[in-house]
TrEMBL record:
Its main location: cytoplasm. Residues 20-194 form the Nitroreductase domain. One of its GO terms (biological process) is cellular response to oxidative stress. One of its GO terms (molecular function) is oxidoreductase activity. It comes from the Eukaryota. The keyword Transmembrane helix does not apply. GO terms for cellular component: cytoplasm; nucleus. It comes from Aspergillus mulundensis. It holds the Pfam family Nitroreductase. Keywords: Cytoplasm, Nucleus, Oxidoreductase. InterPro entries: Frm2/Hbn1, Nitroreductase, Nitroreductase-like. This is Nitroreductase domain-containing protein.
Length: 219
């Protein structure tokens, strides 16, 4: 299934797809921003407003943390990991050689976007559509993932590097206390971003023929 040159009706489509292709996981980050904080806020706000959700349930919640507030997330994570070491649940050598440097790398970035899902807000629609009640939680998680991807891609387009982390439930309680997060908000992911200091790793692709099929295409 070879690639062919195509012409898009709207030039913005090519720009969008190029942004998709250039978004990568980047771990080397520093506490600088190529754009204003207002621009970052606008990206996250638009994602919260415009990413679709099933039945327009609007279950995604995001907390944007910049500079010193961002650093607090990773101070919490470091403290939590040190607690695991003290409890004997994490070998000290592994913590010192791998986990601690990684967390300190996140802390050295510019910001973190915390992505939550408010599952409690689904109560009414689960009652209204009882036959589909067990589907709404997964649908909400899918919507949240779309928000994560949109913010990540838009930040990358503005010159940021970023990586997506999942330290729940280890940090959840302290995150909730630190920023007075509503109890119904369940933390799903942490998007760390900053000015990149390293390049992404080489990306490999499984054969597209094994992952994509087309039927009914015009010759």
């Amino acid at each position: 299934m070879g690639s062919t040159m195509v012409e898009f009706k709207n030039p913005a489509t090519a720009t969008l797809l190029e942004a998709v292709k250039t978004r990568r996981t980047i771990y080397g980050l520093k506490a600088e921003s190529p754009v204003s904080d207002d621009t970052i806020e606008a990206i996250v706000r638009d994602a919260v407003l415009h990413v679709p959700s099933s039945f327009n349930t609007q279950t995604s919640r995001v907390v944007l943390l910049l500079k010193e507030e961002h650093q607090k997330v990773w101070d919490i994570a470091l403290e939590a990991m040190e607690g695991l070491v003290a409890a004997g649940a994490l070998p000290k050598e592994a913590y010192e050689s791998h986990t601690k440097p990684k967390l300190e790398g996140f802390r050295a970035a510019y910001g973190t976007a915390l992505f939550f899902v408010d599952y409690d807000s689904l109560k009414d629609i689960k009652e209204k559509f009882a036959a589909y009640a067990d589907k709404f939680d997964p649908f909400a998680l899918e919507s949240n993932a779309m928000s994560q991807y949109l913010v990540w891609t838009a930040l990358a387009s503005e010159g940021f590097g970023a990586n997506l982390q999942h330290y729940s439930p280890l940090i959840d309680e302290q995150i909730t206390k630190q920023w007075n997060i509503p109890a119904s908000w369940k933390l799903d992911a942490q998007l760390v971003f900053g000015t990149p200091t390293s390049r992404p790793m080489e990306k490999t692709f499984a054969p597209i023929e094994d992952r994509f099929k087309v039927f009914g295409k015009s010759a």
